[in-house]
Amino acid sequence: MAGSFLNQSAKFNISHFFIYLPGRIKWLNSNLFMMNQLMKRSFLIAGIFMIILSGAKAQFNISGEVKMRGEYRDGYMSLRDSSKTPYADIIGRARLLFDYKNEKITTRFSLYDAWVFGQNYYSSDTISKNTVNIYEAWFKYNFNPAFGVKIGRMEVAYDDERIFGVSNWSMWGATHDIVIAQYESPLGTMKGDAGFAVNNIAPVSAYMNSYIMGKNYKYMSYLYFNKKFLDNKFSLSILGVIDAFQKNSITTTKTTTKSDTLIIRNQYDSIIGTTIIKTPVTTSTTQEFTDQLYARATIGAGLLFTDKKWGFFLNGYYQGGHYRDGRKLSSNFYAAWISYQIFKPLKLQVGYEHLSGNNYSDTTTYKTKLTGFSTLYGTSHRGYGYMDLFNSLTKDNLSPGLNDLYGRATINFNDKMALEITYRWFSFPNGYLSKPTKTKPYAYVAVSKSLGSEIDIMYTYKPIANLELNAAYCFFLPTATMETYNGLKTGTARFAQYAYFMITYKPNFFNSAKH
Predict the structure, then answer these.
(1) How far is CA 343 from CA 143, 346, 416, in A?
(2) pTM for this entry
(3) What would the pLDDT profile of 205-237 be if each residue is shown by its tens digit?
(4) Does 412 map to a domain?
């Protein structure tokens, strides 16, 4: 059944089944008012939980997070030429988390605000561009100590966060509206999750709505399994995901000619004749396919080994089914790294990753089949260089693919300070780039496979508990191919560099276990 589902467009009719997606909370008209109201609500919720705790054995915790990052961007995310100048910014976020747990129920409510410094007037009674929203809102019912069902808006992350991740580098993070059945053995050596999600627009009407929200899937389900062996030295993970997207809408444009008769009069206002004025009129019609979905399947496994000094990791995925425009998919990903602790402070790691890509020179195949791999909903920042030059590429099945060969040295001076230096060399699996035009949608250019090298230097310092200071300097040495990929003429790219300083503080306001 799974095979037939992947080899044809899946059609669903779920008019009898709805999930109401909670709307984003928007309130608060000034910064001061926002903080006052937030604290009032916090103490109110805390008071309610305190009353609950007084009559039952339970755990309740109130915690928070404040993160601020100042950046110097001079080629971050995209190479620049002399027409663009470097700039600095400061971005931040704040989170307030409420966690509650007893024998049967585990729940979390998390409020957050993410903003760019200066996006609102410094003196105003209106906050127009940033509001407090719900980041997480879920509860889990534990049928027994080993099995439970979790439902709501939540972070979904597994293993190295390659396929599912929390995108913690982004101030907005990443959460899913989802239902997950979870099992974990009493000793914690085996666990498995089964997740299912249904997305729709709000409010849900009596019939199926069109749902073409950019990166969002319309339906998604997955199975995850993890088993640990040999005193937890070996860890085996298996993950399978099916996400379905509505067929792309088709917009047709039609141009007609409207004819109007104009009466011509002389200076005495007498009719002396007529003329025809022709005006072109363009109309657009969009056809949407609310009940036709294209499903994509991703399946793979990973093996992790850790010992006192050695570490080894190997994983791989295959992706099949259909892309959202109906083209077939057949792509792959594999990665491996090995690490060794030279002596207590110094650890070395070498790794290689490959994401298959499309061969644009084979236009016949490209019209009906895609071979680019997508990392779905994973975390990209720590996987493909801290300058984030390839984040969008790794998410798109239309991409040319990517090879990443890297080496890393980590020096842990003590429990509070660490220095990380990473060298990466990037390349394309195929020597072609897509350069479509209006008249030639499948046009391409031949290029060298090498993209260039990136060096990331990152320093971490934890002066006290719950407080972390993080700073980095990164630069990229591009090739002509990298310039072409970024839409620049050969030889025009300026030196690409990026630096930041970040402060993260995670206070714990209340813990019932300590009272």
Answers:
(1) 47, 6, 18
(2) 0.83
(3) 777 788 888 789 999 999 999 999 999 999 999
(4) yes
